[in-house]
Amino acid sequence: MRTVDWDGGAVTMIDQRALPWELRYVRLETVAAVAESIRNMTVRGAPAIGAAAGFGMALAAQESQATTVNALVADLRAKAALLKAARPTAVNLAWAVERLLRIAESGEFHTVADLRDVLLGAARQIADDDVAINSRIGAIGAKLLPEGATVLHHCNTGALATVDYGTALGVVRAAHEQGKHFHVLLDETRPRLQGSRLSAWELERLGVSYDIIPDTAAGYYMGSGEVDIILVGADRIAANGDFANKIGTYQLAILAQAHGIPFYTAAPTSTVDLNLSSGEQIPIEQRDAAEVTTPYGNAIVPAHFKARNPAFDVTPHRYLSGIITEHGIARPPFTASLRRAVAGEAL
Length: 347
Ligand code: MRU
Fold this sequence. Notes:
The chain has helices spanning 31-39, 46-63, 69-84, 91-104, 112-142, 168-177, 194-206, 218-223, 249-259, 290-293, 334-342; strands at 4-7, 10-14, 25-28, 150-153, 183-187, 209-213, 229-232, 236-238, 243-246, 263-266, 272-273, 312-315, 322-325, 328-330. By secondary structure, it is of the alpha/beta class. The protein folds into two domains: 4-134, translation initiation factor eif-2b, domain 1 (Four Helix Bundle (Hemerythrin (Met), subunit A)), CATH 1.20.120.420; 144-342, Rossmann fold. 5-S-methyl-1-O-phosphono-5-thio-D-ribulose is lined by residues 44-47, 90, 155, 157, 161-162, 167, 194, 233-235, 245-246, 311.
């Protein structure tokens, strides 16, 4: 199952808004439609958004009417801005768009056809790399899960949040594939319910033992001694290890420290943004209040009731036991270990 793919001149993706009720694929034939699919969370999860944006750039090259390389590069710059504006927090989006734009701007192409081919190849490579990177993250992280453990997980970080396999849930999947026995507590993750709608759907398919819990029950289970380890994903990791992830992650980190529970994030190095020295500089997406008052079209309060909806929060690095990357587990001090991981050194 690939969450995002390319098929005969169009971007295809699982419509995550329809799960867990229906596994529906959509076919997007314009860059505007790809940007909208990221904004409205048809596709979501930092690495999946990055792959979708990579294919979006390949699509931009195909849909451009340009007849010269220079004109095509100008079109690509405009479409890059459109894609990057879709969501602000997950750095994988800008990372993928800029990677393709740099290829286009390299001056190495003499024909429009050549540039189109190379950009599609580069977008496919981002998607293929994502799957390989996640399976490495899974293998590295699985060692952290003791036999019989209970894992607490927030949001969705599985195959659906990536091209395939997953990051934090990829660790869970790898441990399951190794034959380990353990249980996963899935925060439902209000207001978009990625935990109950998406992570539970994935664990059902994998045959991993789980229970959905209200977000507000996480402290209760930590206090009762039931949680052995907490695994979450990341949307952007600053150079010092502070990281943005789905709203609610920060409070889990503090509870984990209070109870002496190891707290890890798992992410590819494409989620690390060395341009930001600390998490305060990470832009936090504020989404429509209607997602809180009327989740999935079901009003739980009158429409005029006021609400706020920050989509992410930032967890300071001091709460983190480690960052599971495809090059190994980054440990404090993160400024040094993350720099080495981004350079591709084994940790
Ligand atoms: O708003 P979303 O659903 O895109 O947020 C997703 C998360 O916060 C994930 O935990 C994060 O992207 C890591 S997924 C591999």
